Amino acid sequence: MKRAERLHALAETLRRSGSRGLSAERLAREFEVSVRTVKRDLDALERSGAPIWSRPGPGGGYGLVAGSSLPPVSLSPSQAVALMAAVAAAPDAPYADLASAAVRKIVDVLDPRTRERAVDLAGRVWVDGAPAASRAVRSALEEAMLEQRVVRIRYTAESGATTTRDVEPVLFASNGGRWYLIGWCRLRDAMRWFAVDRVERAHVTAAGCEGHSVAEVGQPPEHARPVDGARA
């Protein structure tokens, strides 16, 4: 990991640690560097404007002042293209349109030299994204998940049978290259998996969900994990 990338990752780690903070020794183990290197990195972050606090003695450590924001960190061309490739390769993923817009914003604010190199490198990466479901359908499912409201769908099962169901969305899951909406089906009074590309129509109702949890879904598919834990 290059130093600029490590500094950014270090700042994010401190931010996530909250008021607890982390010791220099633990940070050194996490980033596989020496304690001396970690302390130099912390000094560099502080000089760049990051609001770092330190607490000496046993149980002490380092953290970021609550409610503060980090100074902007520029991406490398490779990091920018990694984001572009990930989004382009998954046009059927939940909130993919918002992700594309976010990546465009990031690329637009890069310094001209970095942006030029990123655009050149992006031309050397090809992706074959799966065809996405209807934009209207995906928007309705995404809104229902975000707002935790019941969504009424017209769904055609693999058997060819078509039904209209009211579903309380619980989570989106990718399995075997296909995206699913998993939710409590009020028609079957049970948790069900719905392939997003088999949803013909979707309408967000005014009814709120009744609080069905992710735990009710059961064990995730092999290798599946939440997006916020997918960086290991």
Give structural attributes:
7 strands; 232 residues; globular; SH3 type barrels; 37% helix; alpha+beta; Arc Repressor Mutant, subunit A; five-stranded antiparallel sheet
Could you explain how this protein is built, in words?
Helices cover 37% and strands 23% of the residues. With 232 residues, it is an alpha+beta fold. The protein has a five-stranded antiparallel beta sheet, with helices on one face. Helix 2 packs across helix 3. The longest helix is centred in the N-terminal third of the chain and has 15 residues.
Element order, helices and strands? HHHEEHHHHEEEEE
CATH architecture of the largest domain: Roll
Q: Kindly report how far apart the N and C termini lie.
A: 14 Å
Q: What is the CA-atom radius of gyration, in angstroms?
A: 22 Å
| Broad structural category | alpha+beta
The number of strands is 7
Provide the CATH topology of the largest domain. Answer: SH3 type barrels
Quaternary arrangement of the chains shown?
Answer: single chain
Reading off the top of the CATH hierarchy, the class of the largest domain is best stated as Mainly Beta
Shape: globular
Q: What profile does the largest beta sheet have? A: 5 strands, antiparallel
Helix content: 25-40%
Low-pLDDT segments, ≥5 res: none
Neighbour order of strands in the largest sheet:
6-5-4-3-7
What's the number of helices? 7
The overall average pLDDT, rounded, is: 88
Query: How many discrete structural domains?
Result: 3
- Beta-strand percentage? 15-25%
